[in-house]
Structure formats: C-alpha cells, structure tokens
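Form P-L/3: holo structure prediction, ligand BIS(adenosine)-5'-pentaphosphate.
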Amino acid sequence: MRLVLLGPPGAGKGTQALYIERAFAVPRIATGDIFRHNVGRETELGRAAKAYMERGDLVPDEVVIAMITERLDQPDAGNGFLLDGFPRTVPQAEALEDYLAAVGRPLDVVVRFTVPESEIVRRIVNRRSCPNDGEVYHLEYAPPKRDMVCDICGTPLVHRKDDTEAVVRRRLEEYHAKTEPLEAFYAERGLLRDVDSCGSVDDVTRRTLDLLDGLADGDAA
Ligand code: AP5
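OUTPUT (holo model):
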C-alpha cells in the first residue's frame, strides 16, 4: 500500500496514521515529525525549517522534496509507505509523482480527511503529543491515562509551539492557498477518496480501515 493522507491541520491525519501503520505494516513518514525531530536536535535541516514552522508557514518546497526523496530511497519504503503531511503543494505533488514513476511504484490512494473548521481549532489547541513515538492525545477527547505522559512509552507529552490559535489560523490560510489545489490534482488522477473525520477517533479509524481494506481487496480507487 502506497498512500498519502491529506487534510487541514487537526483533521486527524497523525492520529489515523498510527492505526494505518499498524494495520498495514507500512512505514509512516510524517514530514512535521521529521522536522520537529531535527529542530529539537538543532540540525541543519531543523535550522532551515524552524522559523517557517513557528509562524505556521510551509517550509520551502526544495527543502521538503530533498528530504522526502532521500527518505523514500530507504529500503523500508520499498514495499509501501504512508505519507502524512506530504505533499502539501502542487510542486511537491509533481516531484513525488516523477519520483514514483521513475522507480515504478505509483500511489494507490490519497485519503482526504474532512472536518469543519470550527472543530479544528478546538482539536489543535488542546492537543498534546509524544515527542518520542508521535502518539497524539487531546486533553478532552483522548487524554493520556497518566497525567501528561505517553501511555505507550512514558515520555512527558509536549504542547507544540505551533498549536496556538493564532498560528493555527495561519496554517489554515496556508492550507487553503497551497494544499487545497491538490484535491483537484489527485481527483483528476482518480486517486482521491474522502473520509469524514467527525465523530470519535474509533469511528474515524473504522471508516478509514474499511476504505483501505476495500482497496487492498481490489476495489477501484
Ligand atoms: P504537521 O506536523 O504535518 O501539521 P499539520 O498538517 O498542520 O497537521 P497536524 O499535525 O496539526 O494535524 P493532524 O491532521 O495530524 O491532526 P491530529 O491527528 O494530530 O506540520 C507542521 C508544520 O511543518 C507545517 O505547518 C509546516 O511548517 C511544516 N511542514 C510539514 N510538512 C510540510 C510540507 N510537506 N511542506 C512544507 N512544510 C511542511 O489531531 C489533532 C488533535 O485532534 C489531537 O489532539 C487528536 O487527539 C484530536 N483528534 C483527532 N481525531 C479526533 C476525533 N475523531 N475526535 C476528536 N478528537 C480528535
């Protein structure tokens, strides 16, 4: 399975990516997580991305494309992958398409998570994340079992710097301007499928896995 998750900030991409990764045994490649890891370690890549992320702007295409193609070259991506947060612009989508055509491994499906904008801010400002394994929590909807540590690995949870209301509004502007055109890009290629991201996490997981199971069993995208 080679798939892309699309949707605005807070749509639930990261939450569902963890379930898809477990169900289909494909590596989850999350550009935001890779950037945050590098920002934390103050690498060259982290220094290139930090200011953009803190403002809620997209990191320049050339930085992201180089990082992703290098990641997709690694052997664990040879039998499938799950891209969470990439592509986010038409030039990124074109670069991905060219790369996958060159290696003879085209995408199977692009899953778009839909959620009303009123729900997005509520989800984002109350999110807490595990910096170690990427597990995602919500103070109200999906709280950790023990106060502010990851249920899986016990690492203290963090509140992302870009998870404030002002920065989320900027991220949404970027999404509408630069990422929404990908919906037409992938619809034209017959790859786009929608999952309603309203309701409980379990409901959304069920819808997502039903869709992907159907595709794995041979339903056309
Ligand atoms: P990134 O980390 O990818 O952030 P994002 O796309 O804005 O997505 P989020 O992580 O905010 O939301 P999500 O959809 O994963 O929601 P989640 O599952 O966590 O990118 C961050 C930054 O990196 C960008 O702004 C940019 O600067 C840079 N960047 C990354 N990729 C780039 C690229 N390709 N090009 C350029 N720049 C790039 O859920 C949110 C909350 O809701 C959680 O608390 C969760 O518990 C809760 N929740 C989830 N589902 C439900 C549900 N069904 N019901 C109730 N609560 C729910």
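COMMENT: The two ends are 12 Å apart (CA to CA).
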